[in-house]
Amino acid sequence: MSDRDRQYMQRCLELAAQAAGQTAPNPMVGCIIVQGEEIVGEGFHPAAGQPHAEVFALRQAGDRARGATLYVNLEPCNHYGRTPPCSEAVVAAGLKRVVVGMVDPDPRVAGGGIARLQQAGIEVTVGVEQAACEQMNEAFVWRVTQRRPFGILKYAMTLDGRIAASTGHSAWVSSPESRRQVHSLRSQVDAVIVGGNTVRLDNPRLTCHDISDRHPLRVVMSRRLDLPLEANLWQTDIAPTLVFTEETADRDRWRKLEDQGVEVVVRSPLTPSEVSAELFNRGLSTLLWECGGTLAAAALREGQIQKLLAFIAPKLIGGPPGYSPVGDLGLLRMDQALKVERSQWQAIGPDLCWTAYLDLVSGQEGVS
Ligand SMILES: Nc1nc(O)c(N)c(N[C@@H]2O[C@H](COP(=O)(O)O)[C@@H](O)[C@H]2O)n1
Ligand SMILES: [Zn+2]
Hints:
Elements: H1 3-17, E1 30-35, E2 38-44, H2 53-61, E3 69-72, H3 86-93, E4 97-100, H4 112-119, E5 123-126, H5 130-136, H6 138-146, E6 150-158, H7 176-186, E7 191-195, H8 196-202, E8 217-221, E9 241-245, H9 251-259, E10 263-266, H10 272-281, E11 286-289, H11 293-301, E12 307-313, E13 340-348, E14 351-358
Parallel strand pairs: 3-4, 4-5, 6-11, 6-12, 7-8, 7-11, 8-9, 9-10
Antiparallel strand pairs: 1-2, 1-3, 12-14, 13-14
Helix pairs in contact: 3-4
Bound molecules: ligand LIKH6CAM and zinc ion.
The ligand Nc1nc(O)c(N)c(N[C@@H]2O[C@H](COP(=O)(O)O)[C@@H](O)[C@H]2O)n1 binds at residues 26-27, 29, 45, 48, 52-54, 72, 74-77, 81-83, 86, 104, 106, 109.
C-alpha cells in the first residue's frame, strides 16, 4: 500500500461525500480508475436504486479500464440487489488491480466481492485508508450489522450544563458558527427528531437553512398531539414532516395536521425504539435527535443513541435544574455513568464542540 494508493482512496472519499445524506439505506461510495498516472474514470453512488459508484467510473473509463487499477472505498458488491453485481462488471472490464477501502459488512457481500475478483485473477489490496472509510459509512455499517438506524444525539448547552433558561427560552445557546455546523450536519442525516415540547417552546424549522436545498425528514414525537396549530414544521412544502403519536391523541389536531400535509403515524406506546424501528423500515440510516432532555434520556435508555455531539457555549444561565441535555437515566452512582469513547473536541467560533461515541463494543449502550 503506497502513498499513491492512499491519495487515490482519499479522492474516492471526496467523490462519495458528494452524495452525503442522499444514499440511505445504501452507503456513500466513490470510485476512480487509474491507467498509469492518469485518472480515466470517476464516479459516486448518487442514491439507492441508482447505479453503484463503480459503474459510473467504468462507464467513463470505457476501454481505458483494461489493465488499469480501480479504487473504491467499499468492497465491490457481488449480489443482485436493486442493481447487478459490480464484481462482474469489474471482471468484464479487464481491470488488473482493485484497491478497496473496507470490506462491505452487508451480509449479501461480506468478502464475496473480493473473492470473486481474486478468483478472476485480479490483484486485490484491502484496507487502504480503512479508518476514514469506516468513519464515512459508520451509519451504513451500523444499519446493516445491527438492523436499526444510527442515532446521533446533538445538544447545545451552557457552561453550567443548561439547554435553556428557567423560562424555557433557548434562542440561542450556541454561536452562529455552531448553528451553521448543525445546519450542515442536517444535510447529511436522514431525519431529525424532536419531541412536542421542542415544537411548543422553540418552533424550530429543522432544515439545512441555506446550506442545501435538500432537507431531512422532520420527525416529531407527541403522545397527545397537544401541538400548536401553526408551526414552522407544518410547512411541508419546504420539507416533509412526520408526526408519531398514540391511539388516544386529539383527533381534531390529527386531522388539522394531515390537512397541512403532515403524515401522522400511531405507535402505542410511543417510544424511541418504535420510532427508530419504523424509520429503519422506511430505509433511513442516520437519525439526528435534537430533542430535549426527557426524550434524549429515553432514547439513551433504549440504546437508540450511538454518537453524541455536544456544543458547549461559554456562558452561564443558572436557575433550577430542569433544562439539562439528558434527563433521568435512572443511574444512582457515578460508577454507573455511561462511558463514552473516541472523544474529540474542536473550537467552533467561541464554543467547544465535543464528539464522542457511546461504548458500543462492551454493549453498555442502553440502560435497563
Ligand atoms: N461497492 C459499492 N458501491 C456502491 O456504489 C454501492 N452502492 C454499494 N452498495 C452495496 O450494495 C448494497 C445495495 O445494493 P443495491 O443498490 O440495492 O443493488 C448495499 O447494501 C451495499 O452492500 N457498494
Ligand atoms: Zn455494486
